[in-house]
Each structure stands twice: as C-alpha cells, then as structure tokens.
Design goal:
single chain, 410 residues, alpha/beta, 8-stranded mixed sheet, 7-stranded mixed sheet, 11 helices, 21 strands
Length: 410
C-alpha cells in the first residue's frame, strides 16, 4: 500500500517541523519521516542561555521548542512518522520505507531536511569504551538525563564543545577541562591554538566569561597571536570549566575502558613543547565539527557541490531552497552547517517556496522569508563555520552558473 501526500519531508528537526507547520496551514497534506524514535532532531539536546539576547529570549530550550512545533504540526493533521528509514527515492516522488506498515509513500513535492552528522576525530585510544562524540554527550545529558561519566575530558575547542561542556557541568558532571586534539593529519587545523582562538568569535556572545569574550574579539579583530599568548596559562575557566588553549590530549588510556588521558603542552602553532602529564578521567568527548548529510539528496538525483565554507559537499540549491531536480527542496543543515534559528527560518522559506509552487497562497512572501533567514543568521548565538557567508555567496554563484548553462531559470 502506498500513502499519498502533497508534501513529504524527510527529517523532523527544526527545519522539517517548521516547514511542516507552515505547509499544513495552507491546506496541503504533509508527512514527516525520521529515523529517530521521536521528532525534534538536534533540538532535543539543545539547552543554553544567550546573555546578549532580550530577557524573554535568553533561554533556549530545544526540547520545549520541539514539543511546541510537534503539537502544532499534529493539530494541523501533519502525519509524523518516527522510527522510519527512507531507503530509496525515485522520481515523482516515491519513497521506499521500512519501520512502518506502509512500505512506500508518494508525494508531489519532497523536502529533505536531513541535517548533519559529526566528523570523526581519531587519536590513540579513541575506540575505548567511554569515548563518545560531543553531540552524543549533549543528547545523553539534556534529553536522557544520563551522566556519561563522573570525570569527563572534552577534546576539541569549538562553539559546540564549549556549550556541551557547560551543559554537562551544570548537570553536575565533573568536566576536568576542554583541550585541543593532538597535531596529526586527521586533526588538521583543529589542533592549532590560533585556530581555536579564532573560533571564539563564533561563540563570544554566549561566553559567560569576560576574558573569553575579550579574547574572542581580539581574535576576530585580527589579533590572534595576542590572544593565543594571553591564553598560554591555565587560568581561563568558563562557567567553572577549564579551557586549555595551549594543551592537547595526545592519547586516551585504559584497560578495557577509559581511565585517563595524556595532556601535552603545545606552542602557538600546535607543536608539542615541554612536559606531558596524565589526568584521570572515566569518559572522553570528541568534537571535530559537523558535515551535511547529503545521501538522500544524491539518491534523489540532486547534484552535490563542494563548498568547504558550508561544511563540505552540499546539494546545489537556489535562493528559494529549490534544487535542479523538479519538486525537490532542501532546508536546514543539509544546505550548510548553521544553528537551529537559521534552520527554522530556512524551513519557513522552503515552505513558502513549496506552497506557492503548488498553487497555494502564503501570508509571507518569498522575499520576506529570505530576509528572515538573513536576520536569523545575523542574530544566531552560534556560528559553527567562520566563513559561512562566503559559502552562501559561493552557492549563489554556482546556482546562477548552473541556470545559465541550462539556458533558463527553474
């Protein structure tokens, strides 16, 4: 039996749920599919405060936002299918499914909001039980209320790692520190103190530490070397968590499980200097960034383009989040790694584009929806990629080139 809908959305994160609500309000029939056992995507693990936001907006509770969006969608008769795998997509849009009685689903239009996955960060001992990614730690801490360990070391200094370290600390976990990964071909510039300091500018607004905010602004103002040298001492604590810009975790040790890590001092360029010491821990979180999940876009026949500023391979898409494949749209982190606020705005933009393409009027114009995405980008407390604006411009050029080669606009 094949279920029939106007729009199928793969991914029940902030982009997918927002798009579902907006589309259903126009009277279109909508189905949302996701492999996780409940809707919400990465919203489910998000819990933080932005001290620079208006008082009523300072606390970001992803679970509560997920609950509200899910309730709105269900009230509008959106069918949400959780625990479902989309294993094949064919033209016009037929989705093959597992995990539900219906083995296939047909939709006039398809929106892919599949989000992102975490990059691996291999280092000696990383396969020991007790080593997990920082995103998994966030989910355990904020969604399942499970402590991943009693003493935890975070490896990788970036906005997500800093945020999750603080979340674990506030949950009562002893976070022994946040340090760099070791210098290696796989870690690349992630092992550079200068690179780590530059990343501070992307989380400066949420940093509850004046020194950290100052160093972030020094780095963003072109004074990276000053900031790196200023942070050479282990004096920086953010919300009770030590952040060591001049130390790297060179290995993880243990007999059958994590028991300790080795901390090595490093120079401003990341080269090992001085002595190393061993620190007792029982869990390690690895953070190496995110990349867009594009598998289904490729299966659906959408060309992928390599835009490093957006996180790597992303589906080619236009200003309304349309793709060269007729009736296929994308939204959220599949288009490039950004925060939940941007994903929500993109979900709304995709909904406007889809609804109008299907002949349904919308209260928001495509231009207003696009401006909302830009406003969300400008006010987002997180900037996971430092050159995302350049990446968006690169995508615009690629789209225009593709349209010129095709001899017309979609």
């Amino acid at each position: 039996m094949t279920a029939e809908f106007d729009v199928a959305i793969v991914g029940s994160g902030p982009a997918g749920l927002t798009a579902a609500v907006e589309l259903a309000r126009t009277g279109l029939s909508v189905a949302v599919l996701d492999e996780f056992f409940r809707p919400g995507g990465r919203l489910l693990g998000q819990l933080y405060e932005n001290p620079t936001a208006p008082l009523a907006e300072r606390r970001w509770d992803g679970q509560e936002m997920s609950r509200q969006l899910t309730e709105q969608a269900r009230d509008l008769h959106v069918r949400i299918l959780s625990g479902v795998t989309v294993w094949s997509i064919s033209e016009a849009w037929r989705l093959e499914l597992s995990g539900v009685p219906e083995k296939s689903l047909h939709a006039r239009t398809l929106l892919l909001a599949t989000g992102a996955a975490e990059r691996a960060l291999p280092l000696p001992g990383w396969t020991l039980p007790g080593v997990i990614t920082v995103g998994a730690a966030q989910t355990f801490t904020n969604l399942h209320r499970v402590a991943i360990g009693r003493r935890v070391m975070v490896v990788g200094i970036d906005p997500l790692a800093l945020s999750v370290a603080l979340e674990m600390h506030h949950a009562g976990i002893d976070v022994t520190g946040v340090a760099l990964p070791p210098r290696s071909p796989t870690s690349g510039n992630l092992s550079s103190p200068a690179h780590a300091v530059a990343r501070l500018a992307q989380a400066a607004d949420i940093a509850p530490n004046r020194l950290l905010r100052t160093m972030a602004r020094l780095a963003s103002g072109g004074l990276q070397s000053v900031a790196v040298h200023a942070l050479r001492f282990d004096l920086l604590r953010v919300g009770g968590v030590s952040v060591a810009f001049r130390k790297a975790v060179t290995s993880i040790e243990g007999n059958g499980r994590v028991e300790s890590v080795t901390l090595q001092s490093v120079a401003p360029d990341g080269k090992p200097v001085g002595s190393a010491r061993r620190v007792a821990v029982d869990a390690v979180c690895l953070s190496a960034g995110l990349y867009p999940l594009t598998d289904l876009a490729e299966v659906a026949g959408c060309p992928l383009v390599d835009v490093p500023e957006l996180g790597g391979l992303v589906p080619l898409h236009g200003p309304g989040l349309q793709t060269p494949a007729d009736g296929l749209f994308v939204a959220g982190n599949i288009t490039g790694i950004e925060g939940a606020k941007v994903a929500i705005a993109q979900g709304r933009l995709a909904a406007v584009s889809i609804a109008r393409g299907l002949g349904r009027p919308t209260p928001m114009t495509p231009e207003d929806a696009a401006h909302e995405v830009e406003r969300a980008r400008a006010t987002s407390p997180f900037r996971f990629l430092p050159k995302v604006d350049a990446g968006r411009k690169a995508m615009s050029r690629l789209w225009q080139q593709a349209q010129a080669a095709k001899g017309g606009l979609l």
